[in-house]
Amino acid sequence: MKKLTTLIAALFFSFIVQGQSVLHYEFDNSLSEINGSGPVLNVLGDEGIYQQDTLGEVGDVRKWVYRFENNSGFQFDNAAADNFLGESYTIELYFVFDELTSWKRVVDWKNRKSDNGAYVYNGQLNFYPYVYSDEAPVVEGEYTYYVITRNGDDQTVKIYTDAREEIRFTDTNGDALPDGDNVVNFFHDDLAVPNEASSGAVAMLKLYNYALDSSQIKTNYDDLAGNLFFIGEHGKINTPVRIYPNPVADKLNLGLGNFEDNEVVTIRMVNALGLTVLKTETRGGQTVTVSLSSLALQNGIYLLFAESPTKRSSGKILIRR
After folding, report:
1. φ/ψ (deg, to 5) at 226
2. 209 FRET partner, CA 20 to 30 A, in 34, 132, 183, 290?
């Protein structure tokens, strides 16, 4: 699994750009879409619990996740979402399975009536009954960045883990499309061949009404910390911010020269529990100094995010006093 050394901010609230939209579920004590633009996810099987978990790929920062039991999960009601998932779409997940022997269901498009669909099979990816991947970066007990895309123009389905394409096939039978029930189930196995499921947890679900290309998926994966924590909009330009000194004891300088002059820039710091410990606004085109002395912050790693109406950035800060 990829270990990030640089955290670049990017997160997608629900947005509409030339007809392209995304729904984002972050599982912060809720199965609701964070912007209220999509339906609440329906519980399948036993109701799960919300808890904070350590996400090793983003600097061991903790985040709220939804933990589900074996053969349980949740359902996206596509009818209630006005057929948000059409012929073309993307499903973006960050999840962990506790056990990987044999088949473990990830996504079911046929409301449990068919064995066809997306699985992890002994650490390989599988879209049954058509294609298996080689060994994929899916490890028992470790979170995986997992993406499914379907392009309605040529019916191509692709599945990625950690931004690497593992599976590709032509979906001529529509197995990766919702059937007449018009729902998509996650982590809950079908009734045709039952008990192909694992307990686990999910930290993020994003649904796009279009197919992301490989470069966009790579950008999202490189921006994984921002994807999970940043509050902003898709389509903003990633830009560097100079952060010094680092490590820092008190006075933190932020070089915002890559932001537009006099543009409002929101600065936010997040601690290792995923909690915002500082939020302030300033102006772009300058270097600003942020005093940390009054915040009573403990020594350790913090994430810093900067966002303007047009640009976004992030970095990792070590406080050492």
Report:
1. -65, -40
2. 132
